[in-house]
Task: structure prediction
Amino acid sequence: MKITDAKVIVCSPGRNFVTLKIFTDSGIYGLGDATLNGMEKAVAVYLENYCIPALIGRDPRNTEDIWHYFYRGVYWKRGSVSMTAISAIDMALWDIKAKTLNTPLYNLLGGRSRDRILVYCHANGKDVEETIEKVGSKIEKGFRAVRVQSGIPGIQHTYGVTLDNKPYEPATRGLAHEEYWDTSKYLNFLPSLFGKVREVFGDDIHLLHDVHHRCTPVEAARLAKEIEPFHLFWLEDPVTGELQEGLRLIRKHSTTPIAIGEVFNSVYDYTTLITEQLIDYIRMPLVHGGGITHLLKVAAMASVYHINTGFHGATDLSPVNLASALHFNTAINNFGIQEYMPHQEIVHDVFKINYSFNDGYLSIDDSPGIGVDIDEKKALKFPYEKASLPVNRKTDGTMFYW
Ligand code: EZ4
Ligand code: CO
Result:
């Protein structure tokens, strides 16, 4: 079996997606998600100019060798752009492998370890009152785990919160807009938010929160300690994670579970975090973390240290990534939870999906491969539109993490 061709499809049904399609001489093709929010074209160019020419003629079943060809074989390794390209190649090759064997992908990763995948959704409101209302409406829809983000008194823009009541979408058309941030206002506010949410909804519902990289280690330690009584499922990205040792300080002061790594792209971002048991959940998704081949290894290493997966699953990760994650989550033992931010309906005009939500869980059907297809004619109707994530400054103007 040989790879005969590959192409990159960039489309924008409501938001930008990059999809890699790999063709073979058997007539079977595979799809991989290559979307890197706000940097779509960089990945597309890397794939088109550097990866695809080197893929042609290879046997697509050699997923391990091809992965290492593009990782180990390339002198300038790691980084979000090249790892997203490797992820897309790897995903598409596993899609081909499973389609060739006429079986759903999860059967190649260990078979069924569970029937359905626990997911968490997002609830956000401009203030405590609206946030509580939103949490209530998510619970009514059947969700058993809810990420809670609220507007903060005295801060105009808060990560994860919309001002116009539309579904939250982090990237906006054109260049990045600037936001302003005040950590002390946030730290003073957050424990009271979770106190109220627990008071209204009780202890059964799983609650999560995303700090979105905005604390120093000692600030994160204070926050994790102060929200400890509200028993969060996890506190996400309490610090940027560039300094793995920084997580030691958080661990020393709190038993609030920690999830980290949606912007990571290699096992080497995780080695200290995993082996010192400084975290509880792996956030690095298939689309940015080297695909199935690499995440299988990260998950296996994490499982030794009682760490579970909790993959990133925002709307800027395409249905191809979500379906791949559902196969992965179905098969491995140390699955924890999957983030689920439903795509707008218009996305499903282009991507034909094979998963559905019911009663707090996602399930995938038994179609071969990853099971998602792309309608290229429809994709053409939604050309790429430049969009950017915001940048963030402290209130005195200092550049900060978004
Ligand atoms: O900001 O995917 O947990 N989810 C997140 C996301 C990220 C976006 C960035 O493109 O933090 O909303
Ligand atoms: Co996040």
Q: What stands out?
A: The mean pLDDT is 97. Residues 80-100 form the longest helix (21 residues). The pocket of EZ4 (ligand 1) is lined by residues 37, 170, 210, 212, 262, 312, 314, 316, 389 (CB under 6 Å). The chain has two domains: 3-105, 108-367.
